[in-house]
Design a protein that fits this description.
By secondary structure, this protein is of the alpha/beta class. Helices cover 43% and strands 23% of the residues.
């Protein structure tokens, strides 16, 4: 058995017993694929982890940077109370249209809102609304802008909030300082910013699974 096949089998086992998908989640993936969206959504165990982190936080408000088809949005929104709020920022109108359908079918359109446009334009607009601090921020968009997203996450959170940055391992490429790719350099800069920032306490975890070899960073905002 190949290593990647083994990772797939373990993910399937975890999904079956710990993070089973219901009709709304399966339909979100199916419709995303049918619309031609890339198959880069989080896995079910990863979605369940995001949901658990939000629940452990007692989160009432979540900011997601990068919606894709709304699969992770559904996991996160289900962690919120009925009067909670999730704002998800998506660059692509096509992706946002698919995500909005998926979110509505899951019965979460009163909680989750998708805003369309470049996140670096949407974030200052959101800040101008002076929203309550977000309890959790999930960053899963274009990796070259990760440092900017982390900086905005700090502006839109308060002490005790969590910031999760996805896909920080890049198949191991993150360890190569000479790799010129924007996703690698953006991720390295974001991680070094997080590590040096006096208001953040963080770690990063390597993962394997049906999405290959990657990982995520988890940072807590300090007073």
């Amino acid at each position: 058995m190949s290593e990647s096949k083994l990772w797939d089998d373990v993910d399937d086992y975890f999904t079956t017993h710990l993070a089973p998908e219901d009709d709304a989640l399966r339909a979100a993936l199916r419709d995303s694929e049918a619309a031609g969206l890339p198959s880069i959504a989080v896995t079910a165990p990863q979605g369940k982890l995001l949901q658990l982190l939000a629940q452990i936080q007692g989160a009432r408000t979540v900011l997601e940077i990068g919606t894709l088809g709304g699969y992770s949005t559904i996991w996160l929104a289900r962690a919120l109370p009925a009067d909670g709020r999730l704002v998800s920022l998506e660059y692509s109108p096509v992706n946002a249209e698919v995500a909005n359908r998926n979110i509505a079918r899951a019965g979460l359109d009163k909680i989750a809102e998708v805003r369309v446009g470049p996140a670096l334009e949407s974030l200052p607009q959101l800040a101008d609304e002076n929203p309550p601090p977000f309890d959790l921020v999930f960053i899963d968009a274009d990796k070259g802008n990760n440092p900017h997203y982390v900086e905005w996450a700090l502006k839109l959170t308060s002490a005790g909030s969590l910031i999760v940055v996805d896909n920080v391992v890049r198949g191991g490429r993150v360890a190569d300082p000479g790799n010129p790719a924007s996703d690698v350099q953006g991720t390295r800069t974001a991680l070094e910013l997080i590590g040096q920032h006096p208001r953040l306490s963080a770690t990063a975890i390597q993962t394997v699974g049906s999405k290959g070899y990657d990982g995520f960073a988890l940072a807590r905002v300090l007073p």
